[in-house]
Automatic annotation (TrEMBL):
Domain ABC transporter as annotated: residue spans: 5-235
Domain of life: Bacteria
Pfam families hit by this protein: ABC_tran
Entry GO MF terms: ATP binding; ATP hydrolysis activity; lyase activity
Source organism (scientific name): Kumtagia ephedrae
Keywords: ATP-binding, Lyase, Nucleotide-binding
ATP-binding listed as a keyword: yes
Keyword hit for Nucleotide-binding: yes
Family the entry assigns: Belongs to the ABC transporter superfamily.
Protein's recorded name: Phosphonate C-P lyase system protein PhnL
Family annotation (SMART domains): AAA (SM00382)
Coiled-coil segments: none
Gene designation per UniProt: phnL
Length: 235
């Protein structure tokens, strides 16, 4: 199967504008590809640039140079040079993202937060709510919490709402930033199973997992981000 996303010669240098413009090279020459039906994992020690890569792939951080070619609407888009509206369209249609923390919307209940991405894409509100409920039940979120805004939920409860929201759509590419960090063993196992289902559905996943057991259970390939480190002597 041809890849759905190809990264080549990707580099990121942060410029610290409030520190006299100090340049901090983090990634030089990253190269890898994501394939349908597989889960790749970004590996390497803390601070090596795993989150920075994930954020560039979602368009949150601008790359300094290189290419991120994504198969999108039957064509190909380079995320590095794409217009903001193209990036928004990519997020709508092609690239999903489960962040580490839920962005809580005041006064919106958990079930509606999970259903929202489907409603936005035109799914009937009742069907979307049913699918949201199925996911929340699967992730063991007590039904009495479904109508409440998650602001007061525990860290693990918020993370499960976030996972349900990220998994409810059918994006062909799914980025996962430590989705199991605050979960207990039972719920980690549910997420591992949900990732396996996405793979069977042909989704290409890329994630950061500090939990070794989860990583071993889901990873088809490990991308060693330390191999993309800039040459400090030359920098
Ligand atoms: N917005 C930013 N501005 C300046 N420096 C940044 C920014 N984001 C990340 N960095 C720096 O880039 C380097 C890589 O950070 P990043 O979060 O990508 O690493 P990581 O491999 O995901 O680490 P961890 O495993 O600890 O989460 C760090 O030295 C960090 O300080």
């Amino acid at each position: 199967m041809p890849p759905v996303l190809v990264v080549s010669r990707l580099a990121k240098t942060f410029t610290m504008h409030l520190r006299g413009g100090i340049e901090l090279p983090v990634i030089a020459n990253a190269a890898f590809a994501l394939h349908p039906g597989t889960c790749a994992v970004l590996g390497g020690p803390s601070g090596v640039g795993k989150s920075s890569i994930l954020k560039m792939l979602y368009g949150n951080y601008a790359a300094s140079s290189g290419r991120i070619l994504v198969r999108h609407r039957g064509g190909e888009v380079d995320l590095v040079t794409a217009e903001p509206r193209t990036i928004l369209d990519l997020r709508r249609e092609t690239i999903g993202y489960v962040s580490q923390f839920l962005r809580v919307v005041p006064r919106v209940g958990a079930l509606d937060i999970v259903a929202e991405p489907l409603v936005e894409r035109g799914t009937d509100r009742r069907d979307a709510a049913r699918r949201a409920g199925d996911l929340l039940a699967r992730l063991n979120l007590p039904e009495r919490l479904w109508s409440l805004p998650p602001a007061t939920f525990s860290g693990g409860e918020q993370q499960r709402v976030n996972i349900a929201r990220g998994f409810i759509t059918d994006h062909p590419i799914l980025l996962l930033d430590e989705p199991t960090a605050s979960l207990d063993a039972a719920n980690r196992a549910v997420v591992v199973e949900m990732i396996a289902e996405k793979k069977r559905a042909g989704v290409a996943l890329l994630g950061i997992f500090h939990d070794v057991e989860v990583r071993n259970a889901v990873a088809d390939v490990v991308i060693d981000v330390a191999g993309f480190a800039p040459d400090r002597k030359a920098a």
